[in-house]
# Entry
Amino acid sequence: MDANIIFLIVLAAGVAFLVWLRSWRQRRSLADKLAARPSMEFETFYKNFYEGKIDRAIVRTHLLAISEEFAVPPEKLLPTDRFDVELRQPSGHEFDSGTGLLPMQVELLSRAKGGMLKAESIVTVDDYITQMARHS
# Structure
């Protein structure tokens, strides 16, 4: 009987490891998809897109939030990246990222301040950064 329990534990651990490995590989595929894209240092990113519009620290904070949520290096992100296209997760892993969470944050902040912004209007990285800066 003890051998059966040990066998089941080893089998369950093996299956759990394989599931985790598959999930990790598919999440990495998003970063791999953007790997060919030229890197852009934060200072260049800020100067090209947000200088004079939004404070540097705010842009950095929200860019890093997106980067962490999608497991993509921040130097690979562009303001034009769309959450449902360039940052779309592989099939079967749509709920492993912030595709719905990040826009929802903006909507909740907007509502807390009396705004009427809808999560559906947050389509790109720029939309997220701009609206989070506006409502923070």
Remarks:
- The chain has five helices and no strands.
- The chain has a mean pLDDT of 82.
- The two ends are 60 Å apart (CA to CA).
- The longest helix spans residues 2-35.
